[in-house]
Write a structure and sequence with these properties.
2 domains; RNA-binding; Helix Hairpins; eight-stranded mixed beta sheet; single chain; BirA Bifunctional Protein, domain 2; three-stranded mixed beta sheet
RNA sequence: GGAGAGGUGUCAGAGUGGUCGAAUGAGCAUGAUUGGAAAUCAUGUGUACCAGCAAUGGUACCGAGGGUUCGAAUCCCUCCCUCUCCGCCA
């Protein structure tokens, strides 16, 4: 959420942001809602002020006196007015809030113009795409795949997109999670094991609610939501709190399973491990001082890149254009790993700066030494990394002539073997 | 799940219908004192929103939401959370 002041005082800035993101949001009703709310607010406050003054007078009067009784009669009317206006004010307030929630975050000046994925800028590449397995096939076509990644049983037991990982597959998943957490820990992120269900307030603070409700799994009757990413519980950790300025930047990482209903996604993109309803991911989170959030974003991205480098996987970094930015993001890099069998790039991390957009909604602040007042932190996050797609890339890129998969050296100690065999 | 107690400012803790944004103490900040410090003394010390160039003024906030009342931290209702005891349990 943006500050209402930004919309009130610099609407042209916000309109430019909407245009850059190629969104269709009309600012006029937002501004009108704000104006209407302020008029009502002032009316209510004037009446309340009257009430308060009368209160003090009445406190000094003898209870049963005629002047007291007269005041009561007079104030009775004011009281009724306040009640009525206050109800309107609440409606206006809610309307304003809803309007405000429809306004996206402002992209950073370094974000390239563009409306489609083709407009994203290839910011960096690492590793040799041509050097990986010559006889690679898509991981889901590798003979024996279904034995280790049992989608059929998963469908029976739960539904499509909920595979069983069996034997070495399960072991490799565990190895990757441990590897990621260990490396992230070395990079200074404190490991957290968060709840994987969150309440509606938390889901609202990070923007899943109210609009993206259908993308989450929801429990009955408690109305808790299975987390779509560890970002949700992690970001909410400091919700409605004022953290110590000297502790910034705060860096945390967390492994959770992630649950996404992703209704409406079909086709080749969803085959095998490419897109699942439940998958494992380690998430990196930072709460930083506003003055350094873009530096911290670059560092965060490098921390995620480091993982791919250690695994020896070719990847590229995309700087996302305005049109491909999320609603609440100011700047975003995507990390895409090369999957030699499918011959395509798979997104395994998305590193974003939200500036104060999330922090405002979640009320996460620090007390500034400089001004002595609480200020909003900037929040950043990125995957470090998403497990199934990394797994797919390892399988495809490291597939040997004999059908086995060579385990990246950095993982061997975690996995316990040099090769993964499908039969 | 059952029974009880409780949720007030940075913290501890008073306040059971009116002048309470809220006593008192601690903490913190500034100043005095000191060679310097401790101690002591004085003053100050919440957040948000609105109006205003500003100084400043106004309003709200005592777990959350409703209600009663001219007036609610204080009374009533609902919900949430914490603690203690009991039960159940990975």
């Amino acid at each position: 959420m943006l500050d209402t002041k930004t919309i009130r005082e610099t609407p042209e800035l916000v309109r430019a942001a909407i245009a850059k993101k190629h969104l269709d949001v009309d600012l006029a009703p937002v501004i009108a809602a704000d104006a209407a709310w302020r008029v009502l607010l002032q009316e209510v406050e004037t009446l309340r002020s009257k009430q308060k003054a009368a209160n003090n007078e009445m406190a000094a009067m003898p209870k049963g006196s005629p002047e007291f009784k007269a005041k009561v009669a007079e104030m009775k009317e004011v009281s009724a007015q306040v009640k009525e206006l206050d109800a309107s004010l609440k409606v206006a307030e809610e309307a304003l809030r809803e309007h405000m929630l429809s306004v996206p975050n402002i992209p950073h000046s370094s974000v390239p113009e563009g409306s489609t994925p083709e407009d994203n800028v290839v910011y960096a590449t690492n590793g040799d795409v041509a050097a990986v397995s010559a006889h690679a096939v898509p991981h889901y076509d590798v003979p024996g795949f279904e034995k280790l990644f049992d989608f059929t049983r998963g469908s029976k037991v739960t539904g499509a997109g909920f595979p069983f990982y069996v034997g070495d597959a399960a072991r490799l998943v565990r190895a990757l999670i441990s590897f990621f957490l260990d490396e992230d820990g070395k990079a200074g992120y404190i490991e957290v094991n968060p709840p994987i269900f969150v309440n509606a307030a938390s889901a609202t603070a990070t923007g899943q609610l109210p609009d993206k409700e259908g993308q989450m799994y929801e429990t009955t009757p408690d109305r808790l939501f299975a987390v779509p990413t560890a970002e949700v519980p992690l970001t909410n950790f400091f919700r409605d709190e004022i953290v110590d300025e000297s502790e910034l930047p705060i860096k945390r990482c967390a492994y959770t399973p992630c649950f996404r209903r992703e209704a409406g996604s079909h086709g080749k993109d969803v085959r095998g491990l490419n897109r699942l309803h439940q998958f494992d991911k380690v998430e990196l989170l930072k709460w930083v001082h506003p003055s350094s959030s873009y530096e911290e974003l670059d560092k965060l991205r490098l921390d995620a890149e480091h993982l791919l480098q250690k695994l020896g996987l070719p990847y590229r970094v995309l700087l996302m254009c305005g049109g491909d930015l999320g609603f609440s993001q100011s700047k975003k890099y995507d990390l895409e790993v090369w999957a030699a069998g499918q011959k395509r790039w798979l997104e395994v991390s998305s590193c974003s700066n939200f500036e104060s957009f999330q922090a405002r909604r979640a009320q996460i602040r620090f007390r500034s030494k400089e001004t002595g007042r609480p200020e909003l932190v900037h929040t950043l996050n990125g995957s470090g990394l998403a497990v199934p797609r990394v797994l797919a890339a390892i399988i495809e890129n490291n597939l040997q002539a004999d059908g086995r998969v060579k385990i990246p050296q950095a993982l061997v100690a975690y996995f316990g073997k040099e090769y993964l065999a499908f039969n």
